Amino acid sequence: MQVQAEDFFFSGLHLRGNTSNAVGSRVTPVFAAQLPGLNTLGISMVRIDYAPWGLNPPHTHPRATEVLTVLEGTLQVGFVTSNPDNRHITKVLQKGDVFVFPVGLVHYQRNVGNGNAVVIAALSSQNPGAITIANAVFGANPPIASDILARAFQVDKSVVDQLQAKF
Amino acid sequence: MQVQAEDFFFSGLHLRGNTSNAVGSRVTPVFAAQLPGLNTLGISMVRIDYAPWGLNPPHTHPRATEVLTVLEGTLQVGFVTSNPDNRHITKVLQKGDVFVFPVGLVHYQRNVGNGNAVVIAALSSQNPGAITIANAVFGANPPIASDILARAFQVDKSVVDQLQAKF
Amino acid sequence: MQVQAEDFFFSGLHLRGNTSNAVGSRVTPVFAAQLPGLNTLGISMVRIDYAPWGLNPPHTHPRATEVLTVLEGTLQVGFVTSNPDNRHITKVLQKGDVFVFPVGLVHYQRNVGNGNAVVIAALSSQNPGAITIANAVFGANPPIASDILARAFQVDKSVVDQLQAKF
Amino acid sequence: MQVQAEDFFFSGLHLRGNTSNAVGSRVTPVFAAQLPGLNTLGISMVRIDYAPWGLNPPHTHPRATEVLTVLEGTLQVGFVTSNPDNRHITKVLQKGDVFVFPVGLVHYQRNVGNGNAVVIAALSSQNPGAITIANAVFGANPPIASDILARAFQVDKSVVDQLQAKF
Amino acid sequence: MQVQAEDFFFSGLHLRGNTSNAVGSRVTPVFAAQLPGLNTLGISMVRIDYAPWGLNPPHTHPRATEVLTVLEGTLQVGFVTSNPDNRHITKVLQKGDVFVFPVGLVHYQRNVGNGNAVVIAALSSQNPGAITIANAVFGANPPIASDILARAFQVDKSVVDQLQAKF
Amino acid sequence: MQVQAEDFFFSGLHLRGNTSNAVGSRVTPVFAAQLPGLNTLGISMVRIDYAPWGLNPPHTHPRATEVLTVLEGTLQVGFVTSNPDNRHITKVLQKGDVFVFPVGLVHYQRNVGNGNAVVIAALSSQNPGAITIANAVFGANPPIASDILARAFQVDKSVVDQLQAKF
């Protein structure tokens, strides 16, 4: 079957994502599911929008490194290294700054400027996956047993119940 | 420089790990840092011990799939798929059962039997890394700003403060 | 040696590249040479600026696929498939459009709007390399023998001499 | 199609393999054929049982490194490096010892204790393959010409005939 | 389905390729399309024939390194490094000489002896692809706009028209 | 440090290898050790010479697939598939025939013509390694215990002693 230009094309990354949600951010993915021409090629792209104080909450990509550049706004970004150090590497980024989140590490971005913020990011897989920590841990379906989470996070079950109720 | 048998050898995986800690489990790693002959070969091994009701709390390996087999005891194991489904795939394992945790996904094991439990697990990297979610998120050093975590987990800062105090 | 936030950081991708050159475009690379934290991670980023009618002339990346999104302006983009078909896959892109150039294929972008154009692109290697066809073929140092090029391009040596004089 | 917990699960690695055979050992594989959830994930596991003086005879894995830990008994293990040195790297292992057999090298294990021996091993492919040297060389089907083997092993054809008769 | 010897077999690489064409050379490929047993194995082979002064014109392989040995004749070979240096690495080869063309770089061979020349080359992919620069650039179908090429090669459109007319 | 043409060059593959040895064949390798420019590029080349009835005895390459073409003579070639089938895939090759030996499988070539035979082969690694089965098994240094080999090959120790005496 012959490929066509449409197979390598996706439209809409200029559109502001809807950030009217609990975290005040929105990821618009351009993965192989959205752009079939990426298949087997080991790369993909996203746009992320942040309302003022919007947060792209702590998450990991199980199959990709991410590199991001700020198009608009001021963002605090960070990632945490593996056990046992759990070092928090963090930086405030301005327009035009670029930052790398190595494969599989927990990372986040938060809008710390006055207006909206926008980034374009690239990922080293056509199907990188994304695991929002809070959703995976407290919003899994069916839920992870609350006594597991109580012990893992060393809090009362009531706190876990409270957390699970949100997701 | 000539290799020697010692370069491919590690001793001590029969020893019960000390589970006198907050989660009641202990991982004994045999990675390239412990067994230099694994270097570049894309594989490693661990032993995990669990006290009764001990937990290997939710964590990820940023660079490896894990496959484990139960040597002793009864374990509930689970992993959570990526966004948006966050499906919780879980199973109770008995002695001789084998289970797979695909690369980068959040997973855990909990001793649900009456006695101790022991597993041998293998990982698809000589340097797989491990990220304990609670430690990376609430115990990062320096800490992740508490308002980031409050928003990510949709709880009051006081709850986050409580969580951060534990790690 | 401990990593620092600076190791994962690069600044300046908001700055318009100087397009006062023969082709009217400028690539600002963020490869491992510019951003050491990208090392071994298999990804990198560039900004490309185009003056009106500016051209990023036909080139290849020997070790990477490229995916690009238009930040500003209107671009005609294209790539050519391998022998024997040499199909020219081409498309006019507007702001927010995304396009993929598969690894190693000859591709180009041309500003076909009235004003400047800007893209952010990502590449599937921390060290993708770039081979501008005209420079590699007619500007190699020392030059490729002119009778080789005359035969390859099936023109008189005088045409080749004319071409080589430009590079 | 949705994955289920059963896709990531295999049962039976606690069962002693039947070692009533010519070499006195038995491999119980958990490869992608037995555990479909291993597919594409680059790892697998086996249990190996050894009767007293049982032997896992010289063999190679064409697509995997192996790392093994002794659960029970005392084993002599060894591998041989490539041409031209053919160095024999060997070691006697006790319970809890771990040893690595690099990808593609000829290796073996022999029970040198008084009782049974058991190991759990991991391999760096979901489909590692196994080539028992004696079977591949003297038991190929149809047979390798006996004059080839006589010359390769520098013995009379009668010796080769004797060897081929066994496999 | 069982494999057969025929699946791993190709015949005809001793036959002189027909060099009665504009460049005086002929590539006879043995890729996965010609030899299905190469599939997934990451290697392939070609024979190249050169009439006296025949040329294998400047081209790239988007997915492979090439290593070649001269069976007959005298060849000048060369490749050009990436931007910004565009260094021309060149050498005259005699029978029995071996030369490497690293993945994705523009390279060529030219018969500089009195008679025919023949090489056997190997490529590090079962499906390496080949992009003849002149054909991809001046013979793309549909054509690349002549003003793009005029600017890229810094010549009058009339020269480009002349070049495009040949391919 | 700047690369030079010499870094990508090796000379001497036209020279007949000395086949005055026990097996009547000779491999002339062009691996990264002989041709540094191959480093990291995942490919290499060899010439193999065979006296009449010469044999390249059963061997494996632990890190490479091999594809060969016959330059001169008539060769019987074969490889054996993995356990449990140990199928012997064999074919008589003439000049110009090409054959593939998949990664890690035991394979051999034997001159079955009247004169000398010559092949050029390529391997999918710059450092493929080679394990001659007879040497690795019966000629390891220090020797593999003769009772191991007696049991593996199911013959008397006296036969093993005889075999080990040759290597």
From TrEMBL, chains A, B, C, D, E, F:
Oxalate binds at N56, H61, E66. The keyword Manganese applies. GO terms for cellular component: apoplast. This is Germin-like protein. Residues 11-161 form the Cupin type-1 domain. InterPro entries: Cupin_1, Germin, Germin_Mn-BS, RmlC-like_jellyroll, RmlC_Cupin_sf. Keywords: Apoplast, Disulfide bond, Manganese, Metal-binding, Secreted. The lineage of its organism: Eukaryota, Viridiplantae, Streptophyta, Embryophyta, Tracheophyta. Its main location: secreted. Pfam families: Cupin_1. Belongs to the germin family. It comes from Artemisia annua. One of its GO terms (molecular function) is manganese ion binding. It is found in: Secreted, Extracellular space, Apoplast. Mn(2+) binds at H59, H61, E66, H107.
